[in-house]
Batch of 2 targets.
Target 1
Amino acid sequence: MENNYCAIILLNFNAWEDTIECLESVFKLEDVNYKVFVVDNSINDESVNKIKSWAEGNQEVKNSKINSLVYPLEKKPIPYRLFYEEDDIEDNDTSLILIRANQNKGFAAGNNIALKHIVNSSLYKFVWLLNNDTVVKKDALSELVKATTPVMGIVGSVLVYYHKPELIQGVGGRLNKWFGTSKPILNGKFLSSLNENEKIDYPIGASMLVTKLFLEQVGLMEESYFLYYEELDWVIRGKKKGFNTKYAKNSIVYHKVGASIGTGKALVRSEFSDYYTLKNRLKFTKKYYFRYLPFTYIGFLIVIFNRLKRGQIKYAKNAIMIMFDRPISKFKKI
């Protein structure tokens, strides 16, 4: 029997309110058979207990900005099972699997907890990695599935700003190999202006569908980045195996754009976000584009100058320490 099941993975870190809002939209998806995995790597059990309470019908979403995709709320209880990272996961009898991670090892490691089970299961043909701070349209997943081909290993969505749903966050990203930088494509453009497909170097990690074939041949996500550049690394590894990437222009996902980790413009970006952006920019360049490394270092000098100009002394110091591969003093991660 042909198998078209999709595993949907949400990674939760101390943000159960976002997660249950996302789940309300996910359980309204149409035209694709799916099972949802929520991997919780929070610092305590509050989030996983709240998500359990939501599934049991004792916790409701409050103050959604996109009511049409969240309401009416799903009928409860929603069958679920709770596992721990070291458990053998059995997922044949429920629509929601909760997995409690032992610790927070980053974006890739969290997703890999579920991916390790999925890649060894005969049930799934696709995996959708979806940020928990998103709300999705009913056809967001089916449009991603339609866009896959045997060589199209990763397909991304059109990311739209949750708080400004008329504006595009990005349809994917473009890599500058010389300086190791990347930027979203069509950022800030009106959604109504989205016409023809743009060529992308990588999908935005907040929503990307991966085929089971890609997983089997390319492997899991690279965990050493902790955060940022994982999707770029995955795409490049996939290209070496003959896989390509694109986005599905009719798959619309509303994204809150990582408020919990302080992403955004450099002027307001958290120290945590700034550190991993720079650290992994250098790590990625060394791994795949070593000949461009001198230009990446020039880019770092520009970064340091700009941080000093803005009075971000700690940020500038961190950039210098990263350049010379030195450990930095501790900072509050998230």
Target 2
Amino acid sequence: MNAGWYDENNNGFVPMVESHNQRGQVQPAVCRILDANLDRAREGLRIIEEWCRFGLNNAQLSEECKQLRQELATWHNPELRAARDTPGDPGTQLTHPQEQQRTDLKSLLQANFCRVEEALRVLEEYGKLYHAQMGSAFKQMRYRVYTLESQLLGYERQQRLRRSQLYLVTSPAKDLLSVVEAALAGGLTLVQYRDKNAEDGDRFSHAQQLCQLCHKYGALFLVNDRVDLALAVAADGVHLGQQDLPIKVARQLLGPHKIIGCSTTNAEEMQRAIQGGADYIGVGPVYETPTKVGKPAAGLEYVRYAAQHSPIPWFAIGGIDVNNINDVISAGAERVAVVRAIVEAEQPTLVAQYFISQLTRVHIRSNKPELSQSYV
């Protein structure tokens, strides 16, 4: 028996076609579906392309969007366009409250990636009824869009990392969420969840809440040590110590577009982390700190070394507070990570603003405006 469908309106059987040259009669509704979803996919890609082009100034990502749009256009033939019936389409009256608002750039991009991917899936399935090659063509295109989405998210994470000047590493606190939110309100853009002693269930709950809070403010969220926990809460990456998983293994588990940081205390550890593929390194402890019990301070000399030799972003860390921040900056630090200076502060917002103002002033004097501009 031939494959196809029964058209009740026309009281007849419409066969499934095998090729463009043999398609014969194709149900008009299928042409309308293909036309609508070709439009939907092209529109969504154009929105993504505009950000890649004007927001990120990224030629490679912009070109991939353009190529995808042009390939879609080759399938959008006059026959499909002629099937369009906008006045008779009941879908033009359907809407949802979420379509009327976009809370931030990330939600805008994600909404349009979903729009494109859904449209391509529809084109893949209904296209099989219209042209023998259409299903496989849109299947491959859908995979390309998945890759584009990962590349764009990875690129944005790296851009935000490079622009981050202040990094908060948390320690257990009763009102931790409130403290972190206050610091985020002060301009903090990078947070690491660190709790060595909590039960896994509590760690998951705290990490999940912090991740959602950070993303609400457009900040990056990382998890200390635990790759599994980072994956579970959809964190932006992990921070590893010298005794944790090798960077290479963490990368295999997390994928190519997540952030991996690594603690270093000397030049040898720095070079090993860089060669291993770390996206950034911690440089310290600059001063002795109770969060690293028994570990001697690396001192300002290591900060000076990092300023001269690290080709990737690095954060001076360890005992840094409002009283010694300028000494660390004078040694060459452009980014700092703190723990107690914010977690134990009476006014975390003001402390965060102070740190950022001191770092920004140095960046401007150093002719590095990209570090002083907030990330959109």
